[in-house]
Amino acid sequence: MKHDERTYRQRLDPGHLVTFQVRVKETDLLIHASRSMEDRTRELVLEQRRYLEQFIATYPEFATTLVPWARTGPAPEIISRMMDAGRRAGVGPMAAVAGAVAEFIGQALLEDVDEVVVENGGDVFIQNNGPITVGIYAGDSPLSHNIGLKIPELPKPISICTSSGTVGHSLSLGKADAVCVVSQQCALADAAATAIGNHVQSEKDIRNAIEEARRIDGLIGGVIIVGETLGVWGTVELVPLSGKNA
Description:
- The chain has 246 residues and is of the alpha+beta class.
- The protein has one domain: T-fold (Roll), CATH 3.10.520.
- Helix content is 28%, strand content 25%.
- An 8-stranded antiparallel sheet has the order 1-2-3-4-7-8-9-10, covered by helices on one side. It has a 3-stranded antiparallel sheet with strand order 5-6-11, with no helix packed on it.
- A hairpin with a 2-residue loop joins β3 and β4.
- The radius of gyration is 17 Å and the shape is globular.
- The mean pLDDT is 91.
């Protein structure tokens, strides 16, 4: 997704948090936190990208395979998380890359602040000290920007990741306008959103896709949107939206 395509960011309301953006090559993060930490965030992104780029230089197929990657030996933690998420969801490890980066950055920033939201192309890592609502962008669907997921105050971080077969550049073998997955593991939520979305060619596939979602251990729940049709599973709370929402 090109930077100028992320128009959903114009609708964000960070409340009392400070907002800043960090871009490094293809990585484009929008962050809400208790205070601005652009330099620290850029250092963290460069570090994780270096791990990824070096691993891909050694194993080029890691960047292109659509099936789980078999572990071949020791690997950086971000690579291990991507491999594990891909294995659990039944997809290639790069299906988890955006979520894994958001997760690593968010966890590192929590060493300095007690609230942070890291958004990486629709994949969001959240640690909040009060309830927030995450709006769902579903392209041309009439439900786009009109519904959201309400996230209560939680003691531990939570993640919401979105895959789409009609919006953005990320590879999807399906045609869902949006598949949003909620999990405490951002890399897993990202990979699972891709895996679930691959099963959706039309609204008729939503029920079967939800059954596939239930087979992936570690998910809290999620939402599938195809046109005017919506399917929900797990422990999630949908709310109507109006105006600007986080």
